[in-house]
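User: Structure with MF3, tokens only please.
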Amino acid sequence: MTTIKTKEEIKILKEGGAMLAQVLDEVEKNIEEGVTTKYLDELAESLILKMGATPSFLNYHPGGAPRPYPASLCTCINEEVVHSIPSERKLKNGDLFSFDLGLWFKKLCVDSARTKIVGGKGAKIAEKLLWITENSLYEGISVIKEGAKLNDIGHAIESYVKKESNFEIVRDLAGHGVGYKVHEDPYVLNYGRKGTGETLVEGMVLALEPMITEGTWQIKHSSDGWGIETQDGKLAAHFEHTVAVTKDGFDILTEI
Ligand code: MF3
Ligand code: CO
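Assistant:
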């Protein structure tokens, strides 16, 4: 069942979301050749704690996962799609790097992810994949309002990606409700038929997170039990915002 948050809860989620955006800004500033993904994870974790919040991914153990997630940040390089565990691996110029972070603040949680190219310049295809993915997130957000249908979101994302590129959309993973828990109902698919699915209502809080691939949309699990990669080894990008449904539109909670 999709939960409805009160006005007061949305206010807290917005405060938590602003903190999360600040931490992601700080992580972003530290992305450069030679930096390890573990360094970025430790940076994110210490900033979250300093703000009086708590990382929400650390020790998260959903059913089906082989073990609790062992870090605060998810750090995905090139063919890695989501949930890759930070390590001593160093970033290289031109890497397509996505980083995903969540936090608890006053018993409510928010979730957001971004993708960057290390050093600012990469292959043309990586640059295109990045901006198509980012734009697709905003296309999905733009159709949100009370009375719209859940799958209008996926429809908007899919139509945009198909119109602008030959890229594919990861189909086995989706966005989700968020707030009281890291993952709540409903699944927010990144494709779908307009006018179908549950009706959006003011106070619903959704994490939209398109995951777009250069080649096949099919994914595989990495040997660490958490990381997810493209099956063909081609690039993937990922952007995510936590968004509240309002009477006449939406409120992006994870930006400043
Ligand atoms: N934003 C990610 C998602 O919704 C959060 C994953 S939790 C983790 O799937 F534990 F896997 F990091
Ligand atoms: Co998420």
